[in-house]
Write a structure and sequence with these properties.
heterodimer; A: 262 residues; alpha/beta; Rossmann fold; six-stranded mixed beta sheet; 11 helices; globular; B: 440 residues; 10 helices; 19 strands; 36% strand; binds adenosine-5'-triphosphate; binds magnesium ion
């Protein structure tokens, strides 16, 4: 009886809960009490004008230094995420696909991914994955995302086109199999075919246990990755939430109506 | 009046020389050469910061005491040395071992020498009284005080000759080991003469036996590379944390000769490596690359003097320093292009990575160009690890130290990659890896 109740509670527990989050950057408050609850299996879309704080939110969730959280909290599976180092968050299953992935000269993509995956596994108390097993796995994923093998031999993102960098982010997401995926403008810089391939990659990862937060400016992406919930962010707050039709509405009317609400 | 104030250490060195003079190898003229070399040293004494070349490495401040000359190693010392050597053994090389400044024949591979290769201990050469050779070994470059001191005090070393047209596939590995137990000073001097069209790879390592005290290694290497000959050189300084290593190498290249050298300093308390390379023959080519990986209170100085004396020569320098804690890295690179040296192509790039707020790196590239038709350039940068890269890597699950390690490997990789031999490149990578692991 007690076990059942606990199981129920566990199932009900949201995967990611952002509560009244206030964040400052260099003395300026960017997020003014933002709340967001993401349950397992859900896909949330966040839309909002430039500078409304979408990337800031994604960075704070991933643990980027330089942000001062002055209020609120972020829970991941009920645990306080803000107490954890970025690498701990990654090992627990938080993944951010960056809006602007960085280039790391001299560190091959292959080497980097292998080291990162093993670091995550080690942190979780799992066995390390051997080079051959890793190679096999990464090749499969790369193939499904139409990423040529030789890209894996190059420095991380070095000399990659904008679209290739984005595909490399999806590759990592598929490889790490995280519980929460935050995709910050994964569609920017992708051509039509690449967008479909990347979106297919994301959709393939949808599962009842996993959740996605898709940050985008374009409704088009949401035709491929169909969201359960759409949020509108403006000036550091979520000002409206609704179903997938909200995205279509925004496409029609723009953000002007929310400027005042914020 | 220009009186050189003698420090305690300086005076003690004078006493040390007087005390051991009669026991040093070589008679007659060699004794005079030693005396001249010592007097040359004494004129300036221990170099200090007011001497431009020694601005960042003030030996008067750093080298507080003079240690007694190391006694000849006994059986126990040789055992400790053997253990240290085995830990850093490199496959496929011909090992030539100097323990506490004395050639250790029993620990060296002197069997079945290739045709055209000759290896002799310096002590034997001096005792045999070869005037021309001993003049080179004792009395050369005495304008530099530490080279002069090294010549005056040299007890042993190896003298290697490689005949014209002899290309050795098996690298030579000179291993300097301080066997430990008592704090002592060692003075060694080695010579390598490569004939025309000859070729060899030379590895030099500096190691310490377990529990080695604050010893001082003074070493000198004199190299001549004949016309069309090639020397590949890898130097690994892994002295113990209290050790001093004051070394110099003087290399001259004949026409169309090629010198590729790489140095990695990860050990020692205070080290100074003075490398002087002279392109004396047209069409010669030089690559001098190096890496410092230092932490704690280490001080590592590489001072390069690249002398383009004749036309149509090329030189490249890639130097990388990784400096943690309160360590201090120094790279001084002076390229001189003499009036006749038209069509010289010389480039030098030095970069330092500071891993802590107290770490320090001094990069001093200098170009002195007296010819007008040349391509020369240099650059120097100093900075910290890129935070945005570190965050990206951590967001992928890498702990901070591991993320740093990958970035550091990439940073030094550019210099390490210049090592031609795959096997030796792996040795350098493994050495860097050990340093990174010790940090984690
Ligand atoms: N390091 C920083 N220093 C100063 N201001 C910052 C910093 N980072 C973000 N900001 C400011 O915070 C605000 C929100 O930026 P953020 O990048 O989160 O917006 P966004 O919603 O992702 O915009 P976009 O749609 O253009 O990507 C902007 O006004 C931005 O200038
Ligand atoms: Mg953004």
């Amino acid at each position: 009886m007690r076990a059942l109740r606990m199981m129920l509670r566990k199932n009900q527990m949201s995967l990611l809960e952002v509560k009244d989050l206030k964040v400052r950057v260099e003395e300026r408050e960017i997020l003014h009490g933002l709340s967001l609850t993401v349950n397992p299996g859900q896909v949330h879309a966040i839309m909002g004008p430039n500078g409304s704080g979408k990337s800031t939110l994604s960075h704070v969730i991933a643990g980027k230094p330089g942000y001062e959280v002055t209020g609120g909290q972020i829970l991941f599976k009920g645990e306080d995420l803000l107490e954890m180092a970025p690498n701990e968050r990654a090992a627990k299953g938080v993944f951010l696909a960056f809006q602007y992935p960085v280039e790391i000269p001299g560190v091959t993509t292959w080497n980097f991914l292998h080291a990162a995956l093993n670091a995550q596994r080690k942190a979780r108390g799992e066995d390390e994955i051997s080079s051959p097993a890793f190679l096999k796995k990464v090749r499969e994923v790369a193939k499904s995302l139409n990423i040529p093998q030789d890209m894996l031999k190059r420095g991380v993102n070095v000399g990659f086109s904008g679209g290739e960098k984005k595909r490399n982010e999806i590759l990592q997401m598929a490889l790490f199999e995280p519980a929460v995926c935050i995709l910050d403008e994964m569609d920017s810089g992708l051509d039509i075919d690449a967008l479909r391939i990347a979106a297919d990659g994301v959709n393939a990862l949808r599962s009842p246990e996993r959740a996605m937060v898709v940050i985008t400016h374009y409704q088009r992406l949401l035709n491929y990755i169909v969201p359960d919930v759409v949020h509108v962010m403006s000036k550091g707050r979520v000002v409206k939430s609704g179903g997938k039709e909200l995205a279509l509405e925004l496409e029609e009317s723009g953000y002007a109506q929310f400027e005042d609400a914020a | 009046m220009n009186v050189v104030a003698k420090t305690e250490t300086g005076r003690a060195l004078g006493d040390a020389f007087t005390a051991v003079r009669d026991r040093l190898p070589g008679k007659g003229k060699i004794v005079d050469q030693r005396q001249q070399a010592f007097e040359a040293y004494e004129r300036s004494g221990l170099p200090h910061r007011r001497i431009e070349d020694w601005k960042y490495t003030d030996l008067r401040a750093l080298m507080r005491e003079v240690l007694p000359l190391a006694p000849a190693p006994d059986a126990a010392a040789l055992d400790r040395a053997t253990a240290a050597i085995e830990l850093r053994a490199i496959d496929g090389v011909r090992r030539l071992v100097l323990v506490d400044g004395a050639f250790a024949a029993d620990l060296s591979d002197l069997g079945s020498l290739e045709k055209g290769l000759s290896v002799r201990p310096l002590r034997e050469v001096l005792d045999a009284g070869d005037a021309a050779l001993s003049a080179q070994a004792i009395a050369s470059d005495i304008a530099n005080p530490m080279i002069a001191l090294n010549g005056a005090m040299a007890t042993d070393g190896v003298v290697v000759d490689i005949a014209d047209g002899t290309v050795l596939t098996r690298p030579l590995h000179i291993v300097h080991v301080a066997s430990g137990t008592a704090p002592v000073a060692m003075f060694t001097r080695s010579l390598l003469r490569l004939g025309r069209d000859a070729g060899v790879t030379l590895v030099e390592s500096y190691l310490a036996g377990e529990g080695a005290k604050a010893y001082q290694t003074h070493d000198g290497l004199i190299v001549s590379i004949g016309d069309n000959a090639r020397l590949d050189h890898v130097r690994l300084v892994e002295d113990s944390v209290d050790a001093f290593n004051i070394s110099s190498a003087t290399v001259s290249l004949g026409a169309h000769a090629h010198f590729n050298t790489f140095g990695l300093t990860s050990g020692g308390h205070v080290s100074r490596y003075q490398l002087t390379v002279t392109c004396a023959g047209e069409g010669s080519k030089v690559e001098t690359n190096g890496v410092n990986l230092i932490n704690g209170k280490q001080h590592a100085d590489t001072t390069l003097f690249m002398d383009h004396a004749v036309p149509h020569c090329a030189s490249r320098e890639i130097f990388r320093a990784v400096v943690d804690d309160r360590a201090h890295s120094v790279f001084q690179g002076r390229i001189i292009v003499r009036p006749d040296a038209q069509k010289t192509d010389a480039k030098m790039m030095t970069r330092a990575l500071l891993l802590s707020d107290d770490a320090e790196a001094d990069n001093k590239p200098e170009l002195e160009i007296f010819a007008d038709d040349v391509t020369c350039g240099h650059g120097a940068t100093t900075g910290a690890l890129d935070e945005s890269l570190l965050f990206y890597m951590r967001a992928r699950g890498l702990p901070e130290k591991e993320a740093q390690a990958l970035l550091i490997q990439a940073f030094v990789g550019e210099a390490i990659e210049t090592i031609v031999s795959d096997a030796l490149r792996e040795v350098a990578i493994a050495t860097a890896q050990r340093w990174l692991e010790a940090r984690a």
